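Internal QA ticket QA-208
Title: Verify multi-chain structure generation after dependency bump
Assignee: T.L.

Test input:
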Amino acid sequence: MKALALAIFFAITACDAGQGTLHRHRDPGALVVAEAADVISLDPALVTDNESIQLGEVLFEGLVGWKPGTTDVEPMLATKWELSPDGKMWTFHLRDHVRFHDGTWLDANAVAFSFERLLDPKHPYYLADAGYWRGLLQDVQRVVVVDPLTVEIQVSRPYAPLIGELAKYPIVSPTAVRRWGQAFGEHPSGTGPYQLETWNPGERVVVRRFDDYWGTPGALERLVFLVVVDARQRLIDLEAGSVDLATAILPDETTFVELHPDLLLYNTPGNDVCYLAFNVQHAPFDDVRVRRAANYAINKEPIIKLGYSGKAIAADGPLPPTQWGYHAPATRYPYDPAKAKKLLEEAAADGKFDPDRTYKLYAVSTPRPYLPSPERVARLLKGALDEVGIKTELVVQPYQQHNAALQRGDHDLALFGWIGDTGDPDNFLYVLFDSESAHGADPQNVAFYENPEVDRLLAQAQATGDERERSSLYAEVQDQISDDAPWVPIAHAQLVVAGRAELEHVIISPTGHPIFPLITRAEQR
Amino acid sequence: MTDELGITTTRRRYASGVFGAVSRSEPPEPLPPGSGLRLRSKLVIAMVLAALVPVVVVAAIATGVILSNLEQGLHEDADRQLTVGLNLILRSIERFGDEAVQLSESRDVVGAIQSRADLDGWLAHELGHVPSSRLQLLDEHGAIVFDRMVVGALTCDPTTPADANRPECKAAARFQGVGVTAKNAEPEGPWERDVTLVAVGDRVVVRASSPIVDTGLALRGMVVMSTPLDGDFADSVKGALSADVLIGGTNGHLATTFRSSIGRRAPDVVLQQRDLDQALRGIRIIRNIDTVDGSFTVAGTGLVAHGEKPVGVVGVAVDRAPLAMTKALAIRSLVIGGLAAVAFALALALFWSRRLGEPIGRLHTGAIAVSRGDLDHRIEIAGGDELTDLAAAFNQMTVTLKDNQARLAARMREIVALHDAGRAVSSVIDLDQVSRKIVDAVARTFDVQLAALWLADDDDSELRASAVRGRDDSLAAADGLRAIAERVQDERAPVRLVRAADDETAGAVAALAGVTGPIVALPLDRKNRVVGVLAVARAEGAREFSDADLNLLVTFADQAGAAVENAQLYHQVLGASEELEKKVRLRTSELTAINFELGRAISDLRETQAQLVLSERMAGLGLLVAGVAHEINSPSAAIRGSIDSLEAAVARVAAHGAELAQHAREPRVIDAFIEETAPMLAERPLATGLVARKAARELAAALDAAGLNADTIASALADLGVTQTDAARFVTALGDDKQLAPKVVAALTDHVYLHRTATTVRHAVAQIQRIVGALKSYSHLDQQAIRTDADLHDGLETTLTLLHHALRDIVIERRYGVLPRVPVFVDELNQVWTNLISNAQHALAGKGTIAIETVADSELAPEAGMRWAIVRVIDDGPGVPADVLPRIFEPFFTTKPKGEGTGLGLGIARQIVAKHGGEMRCESRPGYTCFEVRLPIMSEDPSA
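Actual output:
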C-alpha cells in the first residue's frame, strides 16, 4: 500500500521530466499580422493605401488575377477572355458557381454593377471618391451583360493596361452594396477567400475563411490585422510570438530580425520607386538647369547604404528594373557636385535661381515601404543639396497631411514614392507623369510635370496591344522624362516583412503584401 | 461403519459432536489456534490504512501537481527569460551597431581620417560613447589606418608591444584577434552599415561597420568595431535579467555569468551534443543542468548570422534552488503528516479494538464451547448494540441446534440402516433372495407389522406376491394389502394411509385382513415401468408414517426397484447366452467349410497364375525365336553358298599348282609368292569400278616396262587389289618365266578366292555362335534359379541382340552409366528388358529412337546403405494416353490388338521387379515415354 502511494507520488512528480518546448497560448489557426496603420476603407475601389489594399486582396477578387509572386495575369473570376480585333471590345467569360460572402451568386450583372458604380455618375451608388480608379478606367465606356456568365467591356480606344488593372479592380456583391450603401466599405462583400468578421477601427480587422469559396481555400482559418503604429512595438510583439508577421519593419531593425533565431526577414524586389519631385510650377524648379543640378548633386549609393541599410537599389528612372518596360535612360546624372554648381551659377546668372532663398522640402514622417526611414533620407538629401548651394528647409508631416499638401502643390520639393498596383508600366508612367494626372481631385503627378510629347507617347502606348511596341514607346517616355528631370529618382526599395520562423509558404507579392491565403504554420518545433 | 459411509474426517468430527452419546468417551479435540492475524491486529491495520492512504494519496497528488506546476513554471520562466535575454543581447548588438554609426557620423572624423593625424585625439574626444571593443578605422581603400582596443576609458594599441605589456591592458586581451585585417575588410565590396555575428575560432564576435561619408555623400572610410560574445558580454546583459546568461560558440562550451564564492567566473557549461545540434538548428532547448555551483534550468537557442548560418549558442540559466527547497519541504511535510496520521489512527484503532474485542472474545468462547458439544452454553452481553443482538441470536442458535441435533441423530440412524439395506439388497442377484432382502430391510428399518413386495413382469401384468415379512411370513398375508398395491401400480404414485380404515375401498380390504394401522404403499419405478409394489403397515395405534419416512421409503424403493430389475435382467441374460453359444458353434463349422473351399480356390489361382506367367514367357520366346531363326538363316545360307563353290576352287588351285610345278623354272619361288600374297590380298577390300580401272592402267604400264604382256593380266591383278609394290614383287618372283604370268595370276586369283571364302564361313559361324550364346544367356539355362551378382548391361545387350531383327529400323541409343554388379535373377530380369524394349518397339511402329539409360542413384534410400541401380527405357513414340497410364500395370490390360499381347507383360514385369525389391514406374507424354526400373544395389535380404 505504501509502495502504491509512493508510485502515485512519483508518477505525478515525473511530469516535471517533460522538458519540451512550451506552448504559446494562442489560436494556431489564426495568423496575426501587425500593421503600421489602420485600413481606411474595406472597399478597394476607394483606397490607395497599402494596408487597405492588402485587406482588399483577401476579401475581393478581380476578373483576372496575378500568379503568386509575379505580375503575370491568370484567370480569376473570368475563366477566359477575348479582345476584339479593333482592340475596343473585351469579352469576359465568368466562372460559374461563385458566391459572394453574402450568398449572392456572381453573374454578369454583378460585374456590370461593379463597374457602373465607378463610371456612371447617375448610378444610385456612384463612388464619388474613387478618383484613382476612375482615372485608370476612364476609357471604359460601357459594360454590357451578354448573358448571365458573359460580359463585354467596351473601351473608347485600344487600351492595353486594362487587363493588368482588372486584376486589382474589385467585383462587389450588388446586394450588399444596395443594402449598405455608403457603409459598404465597413461591410464589404466580395468573392475572396476570406470574409470580414470584425473591424474595430484603430485596433484590428479580423477576417475568417470563407466556407463557400470557389477556389483553394485559405490555409489558416483566421487572419487578424492588428494596428500597431509603433514599429518597435510591432517587432516586440513579433518577438514575443503574439504576432506572426509584421510589416513596415524599420531598416534599423532589420539587423535585429536577421540575427534573431526565431524570426525571418522576407525581402523581395519591390515594384516601387522613391523620388524627390520638384514642383515644376514653382520657380526656380521650372528651370531644367536647376533640376539637373540637383540631380548631379545627389550621390545615391550612400543613401542606399545609410538610408536603406542596403536593402534597395539606386533608381535611374521611375520604373524598377524588375518591371517590364524598364529602360536605362539615355540622359544620366552621375554624382558630380562641380557640374551641379556650374549649372546653378548659369541659372543664377540668368536670374532663374536665387542661391539665398530657402526652399521647402516636404517629407513624410510615416515610414513607407519605399521609404523606410524618411527623415534620415530627407536629411541626407538636404545635406547634399546644401553642399551645392540649394538651401532647403524640411517640412515633415504624417502621411495623410503630406499627401494632401503635395496634391495641393504646397511644396517646392517633395520626397515621395509610388508602389505599382497593376504590374503595368502605365501604372507608373501615366499615373505619375501624364498631364491629366496633374489635375483633378486626386492628382498623383505631384511634380505637376506636363509634356505633350510624353502625353502623346503614353496615349499611344495605352492604345497598343503589342508589348514590344509598348516597351519601345515607354523607352522613349523614360528618355524624355530623364532629360526633363522633373524628379531625382532615389531608390527602388526592397519590401521587408518580418515573420516568425515557423511560418511557411510566405510569398511576397510585387506590391509588397504577403499572399495571406497561402501561408501555413509549421508544427510546433 | 462411518468409514464405509465415506464421510470425511472433518465431518466425522462434526458427527461425533452431534452423536454425542456415541463419542462422549473420546477426549474433545483442542481447537487449533488461528494461523492468521487476530481481529484486533486487522482492525488496527485497517484503521491505519484507512487513515493513512487517503492522506498520503491526496497529499502526494497535491504535492505532485504543485511541484509539477512549479517545474513547468520554472521552464516557462526560463523560456521567457531566454526571450528577454535574446532581446537584450540583440538590442545590445544593435546598439553596438548604432555606436559604430554614431562614430562614423561624429564630428571631425572625416578630417581626422583624411589627415591621419591625431586620430588618438579624435578618439579621446569620442571615447565617452565608444563601448569596450576593438575599434578600427579603414580608409576608403580598405587599409587599416587606426586600430585600438577600448576598455572603458582606456585605450591600448595592439600593434605596439609596449602597450600590450601594460598591466592595464590585460583586460583588453579579450579583444585580441577579433578585429578585421586589411584583407578581409572587403575594400572592393559594397560598404554598408552592417552589424553581424561572425565565428572567429570558437568565439562568436559581433562586428559592426559603418561607412564614413562627407557631406557631399562621398565615401571617406569606414568604422569597424568588434567585440566577442564572451562572459564579460554576458555580464552586461545579466544585470537586466533575473537569470544567468550563457553564451558561446558552435563547440557548445558556453561562457557563464556564474561566479564562485570568491568572485571568479565559473567554468564553461558544456552542452550535450544532441542539445547543441538542436540549438544550432534554431530549436529552443530547455534542460535541467547540475553544475558545481548548483542546479539550474537552462533554456537555449542558436545564434544565426545573416543567411541562417549558426555561429553560436545563447542561453539563460534559472536557479533551481528555490524549487529544490520547496520540493524538500513538501516531502518532509508529507512524511511528517503521514507519520502523524499513523500515530492517530493507531491510538484510535487500539481503543476501538479493545472495546470490541472483549465481547467478541466472549462470543468466541461460546462458539468454542458449542463446537465442543456444550449446547447448554449461554452468553450474556449488555449494551444493547449489535453484539448484544449477536449474543441473543447465539443463544437462540444453540437451543435450536440442540433440538435439531436430536432429530438429526434419529434420521441419521434410519438413513444408515436404509443405506445398509440397499447395499444388502444389491448384493444378491437371485430374484427371490432380492425380494426377501427388500422386505427384511424395510421391516427392520421402519419397525412395521407387515411388509410385502409384489412384482410385475411388465407394466400391465398382474402383480404377484414375491416376499412378505409379518407375523407368519406366508405370502397369503400379503393379500390384505393387494388392493392397495394394485392401485399404486395403476396410479404409479405412493399411497399413504394414517389408518387403514380411512380408505373406503382398499383400506377396508386391508382392515378385513387384520391390517388396521398406518399403511404406506409405493411403486418400484424403473424407467417408467413399475416393476413392483412395496407396502408396509404398522400395527394399529403405532406411530404413523412421517414425510421423512415416506421420502426414505421412496429412496429405498428406487434402490429396491434397481435391484429387482437387475435380478430380472440377470434371468433374461442367463437364457440368452446359452442360445448364443449354440449359434456360434453352428457358424464356426460353416466357416471351416468355406475356408477349406477358399484354400482350394487360392491354390488353383496360383497354378493359373504360374501358367500365365509361363505363357507370357513363351510368347516372349516366340518373339525371340522368329528373330533368331532369321538371324541364323543368313549365315547358314552364306556357308552353304561358299561350300558349293569351294570344291571347284580347290580343284582349280590343285591344277594350277601342278601346271606351275611342271613349267616353271623356279616353282618354289612362285609358290612362296602366291602363299605369301594370297592371304594378304584376301584381307584387302575388293577394288571395283573406276578405282580398279585406274589401278589397272598403272599396273599395265609397270608390267609393260617389265616386259610382260600386260593386256591380259593387268586388269585381273587390279581386281585382286594388287599394288605397284605387289606388282614389283610379282615380276621378281616370275623371274624369267614371263610366259607363265597369266597362269600365276589365275593361281593367285583362285588362292585369294579360297582365302576369302574361308573368311566368309568363319564369320558366319561366329555369327551363329553369338546368337546361340545370346539365347543361352537369355534363358540362363546354365544358371541355377538363384540371385547372382550380374552386370545389368549384359542382360540389356543380350536382349538387344535377340531383338536385333525386330529393331532393324530403330536407332538404339545406349546411355550407359557406371553400375556396380547387382544381385538379380538374370533370366527373369531379361524378361523384363524384353518386355520393355519390345513394348517400345511396338509403340514406335517400326521407326524411331529407343534410348536405354542406366545410372546409379547416389541418393540414399530410406534404409541407410541402400542405393538404387536405375534403368530407363525411353522411346520417342506417341506416348501412353493419359487415361490409360494409370492402368498399364494391371494384369490383362493391353492396348495391343487381340492376339498380339496377353496384357500380362507389364504386370509380370512389375512383379519381377518387385521381387527384386525394386520399383517400376512409367512417365509418358507425346514424344517421350520412359519406363524406369529401380533395383536396389545391395540385396534387401543380406542372407540371400
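Spot checks passed. Chain A touches chain B through 44 residues (CB under 8 Å).
Status: verified.
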